[in-house]
Write a structure and sequence with these properties.
The complex is a heterodimer. By secondary structure, chain A is mainly beta. Chain A has no helices and twelve strands. In chain A, strands 2, 5, 6, 10, 11 and 12 form a six-stranded mixed sheet that branches. Chain A is globular and about 45 Å long.
Chain lengths: 115, 114
């Protein structure tokens, strides 16, 4: 069965500083990896995905993520955090077929950016 | 506009009173799924469907039913709701694996069972 771990319930960072939200995964075969963001009282918005190709993936709002196959990680990063980045972030993994194609999500990491 | 629409957005009901949360997508996606979101637990799969008349249990299916009579609709049915089903529910849809696209989510339904 596939799984995702987000080891930090909360990440605190000062505005202007770089941020990292960690994610590790487990899946049979090649992974499809995703990051979503959830703002208060809103649904999930897609940020970026890794399917194949370059290990560094760029997404919306200046976010990027680095795929590391040997460490089975897909950490979300941003060079300079904004207060408006404060939200709940979810990492997700899916397989290639059948039930594994439905994304499995981590528990989420609350990002708090302080002014 | 491509979207997944859930209704209602908010619902307060009493224990045992059957309810249905509707989900509709306009992207002709084969795959649809339901999740519940609870603090500290993230999103957990309830049921999913890979096509019309094809449904299967996710990680937390107890107390829920689904149906997929049409490609665009995937309602979630709570035959006899209980307080432990108080949660935030999300419906999602996806194109087939060959399309390599992300899942699209509805805006969520906040259900309170008293």
């Amino acid at each position: 069965a596939q799984s995702v771990a987000q080891p930090e319930d909360q990440v605190n960072v000062a505005e202007g500083n770089p941020l990292t939200v960690k994610c590790t995964y487990s899946v049979s075969g090649n992974p499809y990896l995703f990051w979503y963001v959830q703002y208060p009282n809103r649904g999930l918005q897609f940020l970026l995905k890794y399917i194949t190709g370059d290990n560094l993936v760029k997404g919306s709002y200046g976010f990027e993520a680095e795929f590391n196959k040997s460490q089975t990680s897909f950490h979300l990063k941003k060079p300079s955090a904004l207060v408006s980045d404060s939200a709940l972030y979810f990492c997700a993994v899916r397989g290639l077929s059948g039930g594994s194609y439905i994304p499995t999500f981590g528990r989420g990491t609350s990002l708090i950016v302080h002014p | 506009e491509a979207q997944v629409t859930q209704n209602p957005r908010y619902l307060i009901t009493v224990t045992g009173k059957k309810l249905t949360v509707t989900c509709s997508q306009n992207m002709n996606h084969e795959y649809m799924s339901w999740y519940r979101q609870d603090p500290g637990l993230g999103l957990r799969q309830i049921y999913y469907s890979m096509n019309v008349e094809v449904t299967d249990k996710g990680d937390v299916p107890e107390g829920y039913k689904v149906s997929r009579k049409e490609k665009r609709n995937f309602p979630l049915i709570l035959e006899s709701p209980s307080p432990n089903q108080t949660s935030l529910y999300f419906c999602a849809s996806s194109a087939p694996p060959s399309m390599n696209t992300e899942a699209f989510f509805g805006q969520g339904t906040r259900l309170t069972v008293v």
